[in-house]
Write a structure and sequence with these properties.
This is FERM domain-containing protein 5. Helix content is 40%, strand content 13%. The protein contains 16 helices and 13 strands.
């Protein structure tokens, strides 16, 4: 990439190689050195948004979940959304009952391995694959039963469509959880869905606010405020506390973008939003894309031959690392591939390599799976259910799937051998990655940019923000003083006799100020002015 290349150029380049036209639902995500997630802003330079040194690792993700994914125009778009939701299910973000989980997993099996074949699929074949953070034998039997008896004959496209239709009905469809705390100090997860703002605590949805009820969002430091106007003119303010100011700002920007995308009728209605009531304080942000209604109208006009889709199958040797189990060592050597030369097929394969394909469970890691997870503990194999109704912890999957395997491969394997599950901190580390490890990882998008600055990007950004704040404060102060001076001159020197001015002039305080301070100051200033004029005339 050129140093001044915008994010839009990089995104268009990627969508061109994926042969994707309905691209407004997707985005590019990256993680900074402080393990904070960001969405790549398309109107800004790629290099200026990165705080790390090149090469940069980014992830192709669904940014705005379609309100009705089954209504998407092209099959390739539905397939990419299917991959994202399958990943959400695998990381515990898509909360569902055991019966729904079995049906969703069966759809995945049908889409990726086809009809049940006794010769190819021996008893217990569904237990070889990992669809959820936790499995139980009862659930695995249910998945196999549905796959054998109910889904025979369905094509991959039909199974994916049925999967999307079922996933769209779940309460946590489209949830990308942001960890926070409420005013009482209780842990909570905030999320923005196609239908509104959601607050999750434990496995319960404690708040759901429609987009047309959200009147304002702002943040100050670590504090996030959501202003809600409900029926009967009832107004409430929800307050939550993010772990860091950067996380709070990211939460705010995500909220602004989601509200604009789903709520507005036209992109021309988008306005620049400030995080503070005072224009010289806080951050300013503007959503730069199209809104959902415009995207649907544009999709309806697509007229082309459907592009060929090379679906990723369930290949044991190509499974992915995860926060719940160690990575399987691939028998296929990874080769360095430049993103600008990958074909459509290689692009989808690379997405699979970055944890989009369904992982295959390893017998050597079975004990680690059977152990208790961070979200809760199971007393028996029957209770080690999927995303169990008793426990739900989005904190286990707050970040995207790691894209750099090799830097943590030995560490993860050694920890899994001891029965210790991987933590979210490890996933953050593997997501951010190191340049050396990322250079060989598959399924990643790299942007190599020349040149480095003497001052670090993070320090330069902080200095720029400080200087800009000082300049804004100075400008506002000078402006206020100028307005007060004009008002004072009008009060003391003009002949305007309005009720407002008359009331001020008749106050004792103003009369005292006028005779004791203003008049002497005016005489002194006039004397000095005459002296300067006389000096100029004499010279």
């Amino acid at each position: 990439l050129q140093r001044d290349a915008k994010g839009q150029y990089l995104f268009d380049l990627l969508c061109h190689h994926l042969n994707l036209l309905e691209k407004d639902y997707f985005g590019i995500r990256f993680v900074d050195p402080d393990k904070q997630r960001h969405w790549l802003e398309f109107t800004k330079s790629v290099v200026k948004q990165m705080r790390a040194q090149p090469p940069f690792t980014m992830c192709f993700r669904v940014k705005f979940y379609p309100t009705d994914p089954a209504a998407l125009k092209e099959e390739i778009t539905r397939y990419l959304v299917f991959l994202q939701i399958k990943r959400d299910l695998y990381h515990g973000r898509l909360l569902c009952k055991t019966s729904d989980a079995a049906l969703l997993a069966a759809y995945i099996l049908q889409a990726e391995i086809g009809d049940y074949d006794p010769g190819k699929h021996p008893e217990g074949y569904s237990s070889k694959f990992q669809f959820f953070p936790k499995h139980s034998e009862k659930l695995e039997r249910k998945i196999a039963e549905i796959h054998k008896s109910e889904l025979s004959g369905q094509t991959p496209a039909t199974s994916e469509l049925n999967f999307l239709r079922k996933a769209q009905t779940l309460e946590t469809y489209g949830v990308d959880p942001h960890p926070c705390k409420d005013v009482s100090g209780n842990a909570a997860f905030l999320a923005f869905t196609p239908f509104g703002f959601v607050v999750l605590q434990g496995n319960k949805r404690v708040h759901f606010i429609k987009w047309n009820e959200v009147t304002k969002m702002k943040f100050e430091g670590k504090t996030f405020y959501l202003y809600v106007s409900q029926k009967e003119e009832k107004k409430i303010v929800l307050t939550y506390f993010a772990p860091t100011p950067e996380a709070c700002k990211h939460l705010w920007k995500c909220g602004i973008e989601n509200q604009a995308f789903y709520k507005l009728e036209k992109s021309s209605q988008v306005r620049t939003v400030s995080s503070s009531n005072l224009f010289f304080k806080g951050s300013r942000f503007r959503y730069s894309g199209r809104v959902a209604k415009e995207v649907m109208e544009s999709s309806a006009k697509i007229k082309r031959e459907p592009p060929e889709i090379h679906r990723a199958g369930l290949v044991p040797s190509r499974s992915c690392p995860s926060i719940t189990h160690g990575p399987r060592l691939s028998s296929v050597p990874r080769t360095r591939r430049r993103a600008v030369h990958i074909s459509i097929m290689e692009g989808l394969e690379s997405l699979r390599d970055s944890a989009h394909s369904t992982p295959v469970r390893s017998a050597s890691h079975g004990d680690a799976f059977a152990g208790p997870g961070r979200g809760g503990r199971a007393d028996s194999s029957e209770r080690v259910a999927v995303i169990a109704d008793e426990s739900y912890s989005p904190a286990d999957s707050v970040l995207p799937t790691p894209v750099a395997e090799h830097s943590l491969e030995l560490l993860l394997l050694s920890r899994q051998a001891n029965g210790a599950p991987c933590s979210i901190e490890e996933e953050k580390e593997s997501e951010a990655g190191t340049p050396a490890a990322e250079a060989e990882a598959g399924g990643e998008l790299r942007a190599l940019c020349p040149g480095t600055a003497t001052l670090g990007p993070a320090q330069a950004q902080q200095v720029n923000k400080f200087v800009l704040s000082v300049l804004r404060l100075l400008l506002v102060t000078v402006g206020l003083l100028f307005v007060l001076l004009l008002l004072l001159i009008v009060l003391t020197e003009s002949d305007l006799d309005t009720a407002f001015f008359r009331d001020i002039r008749q106050t004792p305080e103003f009369e005292q100020f006028h005779y004791q301070y203003f008049c002497p100051l005016r005489r002194w200033f006039a004397c000095k002015l005459r002296a300067v004029v006389s000096l100029l005339i004499d010279t």
